[in-house]
Design brief:
The protein is an all-alpha fold. It is built from 7 helices and no strands. It has one domain. 73% of the residues lie in helices and 0% in strands. The chain is flat. Its main location: membrane.
Length: 179
């Protein structure tokens, strides 16, 4: 069940990342054309950057599910299959710890509990916390940065889901083949 949920979420992440990759290409091409015509659209640069940030976070989370993140395997390749299984589980635990820490960092950064206590009054929240994430606009798009950085929550939740799913797999199903 958890594995299917993780696989489904990874498909959504990869689908969204693919759409964002196409959007980045279109935005950069649009930028090149409009600049060459002398009518630059400056917001395309910023939107392409934010699309790349979203694509990267979503792709990184899906990579946790697929176990396809960049890895240095010089140590694990030299281990026996039994020790390799232990090493793989240790890596899964470290990834889970990282993902949980990211959730904690997001909680500290976004402070949803304090926003709730302020009655969702952004001004009161800012004066109490000196955090401006909910009102600070992006440079050229003019949208609130909270909408850009919400992807960090999505990454943290997705990576946690994938790490827990990886840990829930039976030990004999862990891939221990040397690359």
């Amino acid at each position: 069940m958890l594995g299917k949920l993780s696989a489904g979420w990874a498909r959504i992440e990869l689908g969204a990342a693919a759409i964002l990759a196409v959007a980045i290409t279109i935005l950069i091409l649009l930028n090149v054309v409009t600049r060459s015509l002398g009518a630059a659209l400056f917001w395309t640069d910023e939107l392409a950057i934010y699309a790349m940030v979203w694509m990267t976070f979503l792709g990184a989370s899906a990579a946790v599910h697929h176990g396809s993140a960049v890895a240095v395997t010089i140590v694990t390749d030299a281990l026996s299959p039994g020790l390799r299984k232990i090493a793989v589980r240790l890596v899964d635990l470290i990834v889970l710890g990282f993902a949980l820490m990211m959730i904690w960092f997001c909680w500290q950064w976004f402070a949803p509990d304090m926003l709730l206590r302020s009655g969702f009054d952004i001004g009161a929240f800012q004066s109490e916390t000196f955090k401006f994430i909910y009102s600070e606009p992006t440079t050229t798009l003019g949208i609130r940065k909270v909408w850009v950085w919400i992807v960090v929550w999505l990454f943290s939740a997705g990576a946690t889901l994938h790490a827990v799913a990886n840990l829930s797999r039976p030990a004999d199903r862990v891939n221990v083949e040397a690359s």
